[in-house]
Design a protein that fits this description.
Distance between the termini of chain B: 36 Å
Distance between the termini of chain A: 41 Å
Largest sheet of chain B: 7 strands, mixed
Structural class of chain B: mainly beta
Oligomer: heterodimer
Radius of gyration of chain A: 13 Å
Largest interface: A-B, 22 and 23 residues
Low-confidence stretches of chain A: none
Shape of chain A: globular
């Protein structure tokens, strides 16, 4: 069966450290993978998209890697801040026209 | 820009009652989606639309109907609400040439 697994429900790190979140998938051949941020009581907000032929993407303090051999994406937040505390969702689609399928998310807490 | 607007934001129903959730987007997007989000389950796709006049089933379509009579609106209907439909419902949209989803703020539905 198809699965998207985000490695942990919750992750606590100290301010200033790098947070690393993992997204693993099975029985998908994704054309692209996306990461979203969701704050309590709000809708998810898009952060980054990485395509199957890309290894890495960066945006400010965010970095995403995509390894189609390992079937894994890593999401990094460098120099983390308490304001980065949120739930982060991984999502993927097998093609440009198929709907996104979401992982259950990882709740990140950055402690000052 | 308003982006994606959902109404109502909160609703309490009794078992067996019917209701419609409205999603409106002002970005001229072709694709629209309805997801539900439950604790421990993540976002699950209910129905989606790839253009005006089209609809398709997602992962959990039973008990719901949808309509896309106008490009900017996507309606989600519950004909006979059940307690299992207690959830937070999110609408999302995207353009043809981008994978990024724009989400509404959610509609919290409680069925007693």
């Amino acid at each position: 069966s198809q699965k998207i697994e985000q490695n942990s429900e919750a992750l606590n790190i100290q301010e200033g450290k790098t947070a690393t979140l993992t997204c693993n998938y099975t029985n998908y051949s994704p054309a692209y993978l996306q990461w979203y941020r969701q704050d309590p009581g709000r809708g998810p907000v898009f952060l980054l998209l990485i395509r199957e032929n890309e290894k890495e993407k960066r945006k400010e303090r965010l970095k995403v890697t995509f390894d189609t051999t390992l079937k894994q994406s890593l999401f990094h937040i460098t120099a983390s801040q308490p304001a980065d505390s949120a739930t982060y969702l991984c999502a993927l689609a097998n093609s440009g026209n198929t709907p996104l399928v979401f992982g259950k998310g990882t709740r990140l807490s950055v402690i000052a | 820009n308003a982006g994606v607007t959902q109404t109502p934001k909160f609703r309490v129903l009794k078992t067996g009652q019917s209701m419609t959730l409205l999603c409106a987007q002002d970005m001229n997007h072709e694709y629209m989606y309805w997801y539900r989000q439950d604790p421990g389950m993540g976002l699950r796709l209910i129905h989606y639309s790839v253009g005006e006049g089209t609809t398709a089933k997602g992962e959990v379509p039973d008990g719901y109907n949808v309509s896309r009579l106008k490009k900017q609106n996507f309606l989600l209907g519950l004909e006979s609400a059940a307690p299992s439909q207690t959830s937070v419902y999110f609408c999302a949209s995207r353009g043809t040439n981008t994978g990024e989803l724009f989400f509404g703020e959610g509609s919290r539905l409680t069925v007693l």
